[in-house]
Design a protein that fits this description.
Layout lengths: L8 H32 L2 H30 L1 H53 L12 E7 L7 E7 L4 H7 L5 H17 L1 H6 L18 H17 L1 H12 L4 H5 L7 H23 L32 H7 L8
Antiparallel strand pairs: 1-2
Helix pairs in contact: 1-2, 5-7, 5-8, 5-10, 7-8, 8-10
Amino acid sequence: MTTKPKPDARARLAAAEATVARWRKSIAQAEADKLRAADKGDHQRVVFILDKLERLKDRLAAAEARLVQVREGLPKALRREQATLAAIRAGTKLATRVSAAAPAVQARWSAERKQEQVDQVKRQRRGVKAAGEDGKIQHGRKEVPDPWEPGARISVPCNMRESPIEHMAARKRIDGAQKDAADRYRMLYERSQLGPLRAMDPVKEKLDGRGAGEAFSDGLMEAARELAATNKSLGRVAAALMISLVGEGLGIDALASRYSHLSAKLAHGYVTGRLLEALDHLVERWGLISEGRGRKKITGTGLISVSGPQVEHDFLRPARLVDKLMNVPGAAK
């Protein structure tokens, strides 16, 4: 189905003037017919022509009103048409530029795609994985306490590689009690807000007039005290390891890679062994009950040594952080 193009303003004005002229001509013709019928004495025809004249005059009045409307709106219509023509010319110019640039854009896109394929092959040869291919996302499910029913547990979806603890729990390398101990330690670490505290300057005056001590809530200080007491019971090395792996979610491989003087297998085994030893200590400290498989403890046999390498400070955080974690005022011994 095709639609007729809308006439421009001048064409509409010409059409309105032509309509008025046509109705005036028809009225003049009817007046002449009425005079001839009256001369012949044909009264019936005279009445018919008079009725026709009334209808013609009504149509002429409507046509004249339409003509006045078109004449009044002519300037605005002309401006609108000029703007439309300008937009059409600009669109045509833009379409011409896009058409001219299309081959270059297509060539650039093809080159970038080929380069990405080449880079992907190089990464595969070097064993380097791009974003989204690093295995940091593994969909799974875990059981958490039911917020609506105390004592019950529900299964929820999660990323099994969100932290080393989640990954080890999914692979059944730690039991329920060790998982609960790690979750409790992480909760303490996050509630104490150690990251923001390290960046704060307690001496600096606040802009709103508050003192430095007002930023520390009772819950924050209580969590910091309990965490400090826990870190003291773990010891300096185990506490720093728990902060890195459980508190901050650093991967075991990343932590083991800091042992440049050891083989990868030996370093990985040492870090894993110390982590399991620390979790066992927390289970005993907090009196947690094991769920699922039987409890296992790592002993100092084979390549996994709980005594660790001679240089234990290679992977530790700065000494100031560990000292701060283990020296919170009011921490229980």
